[in-house]
Amino acid sequence: MAREKQLIERVAQKLRSRSGAGLRVGIGDDAAVMHSRGRTEWVLTTDAFLENAHFLLHAHPPEAVGYKALARATSDLAAMGARPLYFLLSLALPLSCTGKWFDRFLVGMSRAARSFGLVLAGGDTMRSPLAGINLTVIGDVTPGKAVLRSGARSGDLICVSGTLGEAELGLRLLQRGLHKRRKRKWKRLLQKHLHPEPRLALGQWLAKSGRATAMIDTSDGLSTDLAHVCEASGVGAKVWADRIPKVSVPSDLRKIGLDPLRLALDGGEDYELLFTVPKRLAQHLPRAVHGVPITIIGEITRGKRILLMDDAGRTKAFRARGWDPFRKDSVGK
Q: What is the structure's pLDDT at 256?
């Protein structure tokens, strides 16, 4: 049975927490001590990753839980155009998760920290009936350059990065146990659900270039996250369904009701970037940045209605049906 001190020692071995580069005092003291790295603004975010609400202990590999917990939180910095620097990690674990499960969890989180350029600054541990991970991620951005949700204006074009619906497809496969039947064939379909990639380089490029007027990450799904942007900006939107970069769903999975458009509209956890750009700058917008494709899918409008236009030119209300932690049918998603 692991004690708290032993858990902390194992964290310190796997997750770097070195002094220097702005962090004077890291893990091991009552609190972290850091100083500003020049003339920048701090960007801070916090995120909870909870058993049965965000992951299933019996179904999700521990390495993926550790990786995804940090990736989710770091994606919020990408959505602001910030550079990740440090993170705080608080763990609530049942005794059953303090052995091999914990070591594998740390392997995944360590991989994420290295990939995103993050240094552990401190945290806390406690015993709990269910596993819970709480993360605070700290980054910086050039003063005045952080991209907010509230900057979209009428006439701006709506853009998304990557492909939408991939993470939701992976979740559906895992929930139904279908990935076990054709493990090799469908392994790639689980990738984005288990190991999402925050679009940090794209977010920073958009912030530095000043091209994005508003931005958010697609953590809750396109329908819900676009509604967040429109509400914050006091605008409406029109989205062209045929232009949305949708997940490719194998024909045998379509037969069981996995529709590419529905997955792309309402499926969350893709952690792509949804952003708006002035129409005059659209012709200078590259098709890809750092290898990540960019697609124009709609336009911001004056009214506050959000509409979805189908292939035939018909429009209907584009309702927010993505992730909502307090909606009954979202529990366990």
A: 83
Q: Indicate the residue type of 100.
A: K
Domains of the chain (ranges, CATH numbers): 4-141 (3.30.1330.10), 149-323 (3.90.650.10)
Q: Write the CB contacts of 299 (distance below 8 Å, at least 6 apart in sequence).
A: 155, 156, 157, 158, 237, 238, 279
List all residues 6 or more positions away from 76 whose beta carbon is below 8 Å from its beta carbon. Answer: 45, 47, 137, 217, 219
Q: Which tokens hold the place of 14?
A: 């796997």
- Written as six digits, the tokens of 242 are 């045929």
Residue 213 DSSP class: S
Distance CA 156, CA 168 (A): 28
Give dist(CA 196, CA 112) in Å, integer: 10
- What's the pLDDT at 333? 45
Which candidate, 71, 126, 72, 124, places its Cα nearest to that of 97? Answer: 126
Q: What is the mean pLDDT of each run of 10 residues along the chain (333 residues)?
A: 74 73 69 72 93 94 98 97 95 96 97 96 94 96 93 98 97 82 75 97 96 96 97 97 95 87 96 97 91 98 95 92 74 44
Q: What is the pTM of this model?
A: 0.91
Two tokens, residue 155: 């006439």
pLDDT in the model for residue 188? 85
Maximum alpha-carbon separation in the chain: 63
Name the DSSP letter for residue 28.
T
Structure tokens that stand for 191 in this block: 């990738």
Q: What is the predicted pLDDT for the residue at 199?
A: 98
C-alpha to C-alpha distance for 258 and 131, rounded to whole angstroms = 30
C-alpha–C-alpha distance, residues 270 and 322, integer Å: 12
The C-alpha torsion from 146 through 83 and 198 to 59, rounded to 10°, is -120
Give the angle subtended at the CA of 55 by the CAs of 52 and 60, to the nearest 5°: 125
